[in-house]
Amino acid sequence: MILGVLTGGGDAPGLNPAIRAVALSALAQGDQVIGFLGGWKGVQENDVVEIDRGWAESILDEGGTKLGTSRTNPMKSESTMSAVIENFRGNKLDALVAIGGDDTLSVAAELSRRGLPVIGLPKTMDNDVPETDYCIGFDTAVNTVRDSLDKLRTTSRSHDRVMVVEVMGRDAGWVAGVGSMAGGADWVMLPEEEPDVEALCAHLTKLREDGKTYALVVIAEGVQLGTAPSGVDQKTDAFGHVQLASKDVGATLAGLIEERLGWETRSVVLGHLQRGGSPSAFDRVLGTRYGVAAVDHAHRGEFGIMVVMKGWQLRTVPLDQIAGKTKTLDPGFIAQLKQLF
Ligand code: F6P
């Protein structure tokens, strides 16, 4: 077979292990493997690299994606879709493995509807792709949040301060919630809930009355505090998402806390640090298992699917089933987290 592989959307640790696994398992079966550079842009512009064992084998521990990525949306026009289909056929692909989040997979679903043999693998540190327990990049991001909270605790404690930590998560609070539990935050604001600054301040007051001299507060970037600065936050990407980094919800919340409680407060935006670094053992194994499974399905002629993980089991779901949906943070988990505050 001739297999294509690409990575689209925001990068995340674990992409390279997935690419490597697609390549090594396909090459071991005598297949040819072609990498498209820069996500769908690479297919649109036929920017390709021939992947051999040497190219792929040493990238297991590397963050980012050796294939590069972009937020290119070929569905924006019929001519770019035609270019993608033409290059798909021109490269004589028997299968294309598209590794990405909702946006990347929505293009894969559209190609599949048009009859092309496509398989999706879920990647996003936001962990909000539906039908799977785990997306590539989530575990490493949570470890980064946990590590950051551990470090921020010592400086907050030394200075008797509140530290507001803004983490990624546009529509879902997986990284905020799981990272908060792992790092022992004193409060978390999630996109799943209405922000309640009063309740937060009441809790901080109680902590202070109980003798606590510092506090860690986590806020997901997607929380709507309703105080975003004008203009700068309206930049959108090719899929129409507003760039949230400029909204500064963490700094806004820190200002509100300091103003209301008179408790010195600092804020920090973890930002793209959460997408960097060497993949955790879990993300290496997850990416590898997804990659091997994708090649297996290609050899069985099973297309129009996304490989998912439920518990420890790999399954597949139709690509059509996930488009436009978001997997928000499990309410049972949120309830447990809240019992600590
Ligand atoms: O990949 C998803 C995500 O990490 C979001 O949580 C965040 O809002 C966005 O990417 C940032 O993307 P960019 O790399 O375009 O700044």
Q: Treating each run of at least 4 consecutive H or I residues as one helix, how many helices?
A: 11
Order of SSEs: EHEHEHHEHEHEHEHEHEHEEH
* Whole-angstrom Rg: 21 Å
Mean pLDDT: 95
**Gross morphology:** elongated
CATH class of the largest domain: Alpha Beta
Q: Structural class per helix/strand content? A: alpha/beta
Q: How many domain regions?
A: 2
Question: What CATH architecture label of the largest domain applies?
Answer: 3-Layer(aba) Sandwich
The CATH topology annotation of the largest domain reads as Rossmann fold
Give the percentage of residues in beta strands: 15-25%
The major beta sheet can be summarized as: 7 strands, mixed
Tell me what the structure shows.
The protein is α/β, with parallel strands linked by helices. It has two domains: about 180 residues, 3-Layer(aba) Sandwich (Rossmann fold); about 140 residues, Phosphofructokinase domain (Rossmann fold, 3-Layer(aba) Sandwich), CATH 3.40.50. Helices cover about 40% and strands about 15% of the residues. It is built from eleven helices and eleven strands. The strands form two sheets. Strands 3-2-1-4-5-10-11 form a seven-stranded mixed β-sheet, with helices on both faces. Helix 1 links the parallel strand 1 and strand 2. The longest helix is centred in the middle third of the chain and has 22 residues. The relative contact order is 0.18.
